[in-house]
Write a structure and sequence with these properties.
It is a single-pass membrane protein. This protein has helices at about 1-30, 50-55, 65-80, 85-100. It is mainly α.
Length: about 110
């Protein structure tokens, strides 16, 4: 008589484990893709080389080619003529100029 009870408990446990596995799988599939963590905060009043490198996603000591490549990539996504923000485009251009040594540090009019 104990055999049917044990079989019932085993079937119930298997069903419970299967349900839990399906729930975990559906949560895993519906989770958003992992994204890069971005700097949380606003812009500094006077841009530093560190901030310029963070804006372009490069190192402060990056070469001219890498800086220009990063600038182009970001400007394609944020150009004002393509619906981007003119303020962000200004900051990206300022970051490029600062890292390339062109122009002086300036205070944003905003």
């Amino acid at each position: 008589m104990a055999t049917p009870v044990i079989a019932g408990i085993a079937v119930g446990a298997a069903a419970y484990a299967g349900k839990a596995a399906i729930e975990i799988f559906t949560k895993f599939r519906s989770a958003p893709p992992r994204m890069r963590q971005f700097y949380k905060g606003g812009f500094l009043q006077d841009m530093s080389k560190r901030e310029a490198a963070q804006i372009l996603g490069t190192r402060e000591s990056a070469g001219e080619d890498r800086i220009r490549e990063a600038h182009l990539r970001i400007m394609k996504a944020n150009h004002p003529d393509l619906g981007g923000s003119s303020y962000l485009a200004e900051k990206v251009n300022e970051a490029k100029d600062l890292l390339l040594g062109k122009g002086k540090r300036r205070t944003s009019p905003f």
